[in-house]
Specification:
heterodimer, A: alpha/beta, 14% strand, B: globular
Chain lengths: 322, 435
Amino acid sequence: MTLVAPHTQLSADGKLKHFLTIEGLDKSILTEILDTAESFAGIADQPVKKYPILRGKTIVNLFFENSTRTRTTFDLAATRLSADVLNINISTSATSKGESLLDTIRNLEAMHVDMFIVRHSASGAAHFIAQNTAPHISVINAGDGQHAHPTQAMLDMFTIRRLKQDFTRLKIAIVGDILHSRVARSQIQALNTLDAREVRVVAPKTLVPAGVEALGVKVFNDMDKGLNDVDVIIMLRLQKERMAGALLPSEQEYFNCFGLTENRLARAKSDVIVMHPGPINRGVEIASSVADGKHSVILQQVAYGVAIRMAVMSLTIQAGAQ
Amino acid sequence: MNKIKISNGRIIDPQNQIDRVGTLYISEGKIAALFEEPDGFNADLDMDAQQQIVCPGFIDLSARLREPGHSNKATIAGETQVAAKSGITSICMPPDTQPVADTTAVVELIREKAERAGYMNVFPIGALTRKLAGTELSSMYALTQAGCIAVSNAALPVANLLVLRRAMEYAASHDILLIYRPQDYWLSNQGCAHEGKVATRYGLPGIPEAAESIALSQCLMLMEKIGCRVHFAQLSSASAIPLMQQAQRKSLAVSCDVAAHQLHLTEDDILPFDSAYHVMPPLRSKVDRQALRAGLRSSVINAVCSDHQPHDVDTKLGAFPQTESGISAFETLLPLMLKMVHEGGIELQQAIAAITSQPAKILQLPLGHLSVGAAADVCVFDPEKCWEINTQNWSSSGKNTPYWGQTMQGQVMWTLQTGQVLFSNNAPKAYYHPA
C-alpha cells in the first residue's frame, strides 16, 4: 500500500484546506492570504480585539519543538478569532512515554478538535498529519524540520508588501544558514511565486544546500557582493550548534564575514529594509545598531505575524467547513 | 515426485548460452536433460510451459527475513514462501538480526528455521564485527563453518580503516567473501535522502554521492595489497561505475550488485514525504540511474538483488526522516527486471543472468544454471501476464512498496527447488501421471 497518498493542500473546490507549504500554491492564493491579513491588521487599534469567526471551534497548538514567538502569535490569533485553544505540552505528554505521532493525533481527534497547529523537528511531519487526520480537521504547519515554515514566510511577504508594495521591482537577499532553514525555503518559494525580481541567498558554502539554484535563487558566498543594490535583507538566525558540526569556525569569524553591520548595509539601496524571523543573536548575525536601527522592521514583522495567522486560520477553517 | 517434464517453454540458461524453445527433463531433483527426452523417461508431472520462460531459479544476494528479532515485521517461514512465489530459490540474509548473526548459535537458528519452513536455500551472511559494532572482528571462520556464505557489516559502519583492513586480511586468510556496502558514516551525516535538488526542496538531510564513492575507493585501495574477495552491495551512484571498472581492469577479486528498484526509481519519483520511497542507499538522480543501467549492460555491475526489507505498517507511518528505510521487494524483482528489458535497458538473457548465474558465481555456488546434473532449481514464468499490486495479490507481510496499486508485467507460474514444486500459480496446465 502507498502509505501516504499524493497530497494537496487544497479542497476539491480549490480553497486552502491545510497550510503546509508555499510550494504548489499559486499567486492568487498567496495574495488572498495577504489581503485577508490586511483586513485583520487594524484589529489591534479597535476597542474590542475580537472577531467571532472561529467561535465554537477548538484549535490545538501541537508543538513538538520549543517555540515562544510562533506559538504565542498563533495563540493570540486564535483567541482574537474567538476560538478555544488547547496548548499541548509535548515534553510532559504521552509522546515522551513512547506514543506514536499518529496515536497522539488520533487521541486529540477523538476530542472533536477542528484544527492542528503543528511544529515538529522532522521534515514532512505536518504533511503526515494532514494526510492521516480526520477530513474535517485543518492542519497548519508552524515549522517542520528543515522543510517549511509557511506562516513565517507569509508574514514576511506581508511586511515587504506593506513597505515596498510591488514585488516585481525588488531584489531580496536572504543571509545566513540556508541549509538548515525552513524559513528560507518557504521565503524563497513565496518570493518567486509573487514574482520578485531577484532572490539571492548569501552564505558560506557550508550553509548552502546542494542544488538550491533549482529553487530559483542566485547564490553568493561573499556578503558584500550579495548585498549590492538590494531592496530587502532577510537575516537568518545562526544556531550555536553549527560550530560543533564543523560548519563554521567561530561566531566571531561568522560575524566578520557575514554579520550585518552598518558598513555592509551601505552596499544595499538607501531605502533597504532589514528583516529577521527572530530570535536574534546580536553580534553574531547582526549588529545591534542595525537590529535597532532605522532600516530594521523586525518588530513590525512580529506584529504582522498575528494578522497573517488570523488570516490563515480563518481561510483554512472556511475551506474545511465547505 | 521423481520425474518432471517442463514442456515447450522458452528455455533461457545464460551460463550455458541457451535460449530456445524446448522441453526440460528433471529426475531425482536434478536436471536430467534438455530438448531431447532421455530413454525410458516417464514423467510423473508434465508441465505445459508454452509461451512461458523456463530459467534457473533466482538467487537473491540480499533479503531481510526479519528473524530472529523482528518477527513483528516478517518471519522466515512467511517470507521464504513469498520468495518461492517470486521465482527465488536461494536467499542471502544479512546479519543485522536481533541478536546479530555474530555467533554460530544465531546462524544455526536461522538455518534451522529455514529448513523447517522447507522452501529454499537460506544462506546467512555472518557479522563482520562483533555485534556489528564495527570495532572487533567476529569469529568469521566459525561462522562460515556454521553455514555462513560470507561476512558483512550490513548497513552499519566499520569504525575505521584499520578495522576494515584487518577484517579484510583476516577474511582473506580463510578465503571468506566479504560483502561491503560502501557508505561513509560521517559524510552520510544521518541523512535520509540523496543530497540534491529534491532533498533541498523538501528539507530532507542529504547523503552526498561522495559518501559512496569515497568508501568504495578506500576499500578498493586496501584490496590491492590484501587480495581479499570483496562484493560491493547495493551501489547507487554513477561515480561508483568507473571505480569498479578500474578495479576489474586491475583483476581485483571484486564484484558488485545493485538493488532492482535503483534501476528504476530516482529522487524525482519521491512523492512528497512518502515513506515508501525511503530507502538506503537513497534514490539518486536520473544521471545515476542511467549510469547504473549502463553499468549492468556492460557487466561492470554483475548482479541485481531485491534488497527485500519487509516492514510492519507502524514503522512506515511517520514523518519521512523518522521512518525506517527499505522496500518489500521479492514480488517486484522479476517484474522490475522485465520492465528494464521492455524499456530497452538490457537484453532478457542478461537480465536473467543478473539474478541467476551471476550471483551464483559471486557466491561460488554450483547453482544458477540448467546444466545436466545440476540441482533442478527452476523458475517458469509468463513474461506477458500482468497483475496488480493489491491486498489480494500481495503476499509479503511487508506492504511497504512504492509500487502499490500499480500493474506489474511478468508472473511466476512455477518454482522448483531440487525438483520439488515450491510454488505453482494455480497449476494452470499440469498433468499428474499416477504411477
